[in-house]
User: What shape does this take?
Amino acid sequence: MPVNEKTGEFTPKIVAFCCNWCSYAGADLAGSSRLAYPAEVKIIRVPCSCRVNPMFILRAFEKGADGVIICGCHPGDCHYSTGNYYARRRMTLLFSMLDYLGVESGRTRVEWVSAAEGVKFSTTMNEFAAKIHELGPNVRLEDLRCKNN
Amino acid sequence: MQEQLINRAKELLADGTVVRVLGWRRGDMDYNPEVAYFNSADELSDFVYNGFCGANLSKYMIEASKLEGKTLVFLKPCDTYSFNQLLTEHRVDRDKAYIIGVGCRGKLDIEKIKAKGITGITAITGGPDQIKVSTIYGDHDIDCKDVRLERCHVCKGKEHRVFDEVIGESVDTRDADRMAGVEAIEAMSPAEKFAFFQAELSKCIRCNACRNVCPACSCRKCVFDSTKFDSAQKANTTSFEEKMFHIIRAFHVAGRCTDCGECSRVCPQGIPLHLFNRKFIKDINELYGDYQAGESADQRAPLVNYTFEDAEPGIVSERGSK
Assistant: This one.
């Protein structure tokens, strides 16, 4: 369990997959608007939300992530027209399966954030990090073979 | 019935309609017939068709489609769904197959017979409704209803979805709710769900039998054979580590799985693998409308058949951990 060295508190690892066209720009706007979001959120830029292979999510959990969030353009706004529609069906099914296996549904989330929604980006990330703090460390999908330490 | 099938196969071989027959051959015991090709009328003397011919022959048609000439294949009603699905995916060639739809009255599970405490089996005779199991300790009469395969309790019906001719009568053996097992797990708390799957999947020995038998798992190169896929290549550190294999495999066949039940049938450890596939089937039916893979050969797969109004992924937490 990752712990803050100074306070001894649980500091989760949160992986955020952000699409290049909307959500990554939204994160950028949040930054330039001086809106705070937790440093526990690690952003990975992907060309489109449908680039997120379900394996990426499982892999993140395997390697010790405590929560995974995927951000993309709003339905209808995809830079590639239809990418987020594919992502939406895939992620719904995958998250439902993870819930079925006993991984709390709060650990996974999909949010549509446009390039103009810096505020939404920051509030979403704050909310999500608070939820992960509440749920505590993820031990159910960890794979010790994939750990570096 | 078996004689009828053999005679028809001989006729078709003799008049040159087909050059080989794909069917079931007598195994070393009465309860383990194996899948086999028969190239001549003489070889057909080993052909069997009985209550233990559960094996789905559809997947073998992928290889048979690459051979010269037509192959005669025997498909039970539920096997035709798999064949249809493979047709949709252009994995089999309809012109290379002569399909005889065989009648099915439910297939039997030898493990259920053994679970009754019957050991030392020497022969199994009779059928289709009652079988006589002879053992070195004496004979047992068993009602077939009590020892059917799990998939036969949720039978998809007696109709063949694709065939050239049908031989024999089929019976719909459905007597249970298909989703009852899934619903029971959904009703558990996250900790209970996890404990359930941990107990089941810890039995997995990664023999890959489920993958090898699955008609939907027909990729020429499989991700699990990759040396770069490191959770599959290293030794286990805990007994529960094969969970990823099962999650990924279930996801790969989501929307394409016809629920033929072969994975659960072949699992040497008796893991109820159909519970994964049925969860996806249940979600697809609930969220995107009823869909039965393989029902016809011109359906669009649910994972690509999106609409603007699709449910948001947040529905998973809204529905709650029931």
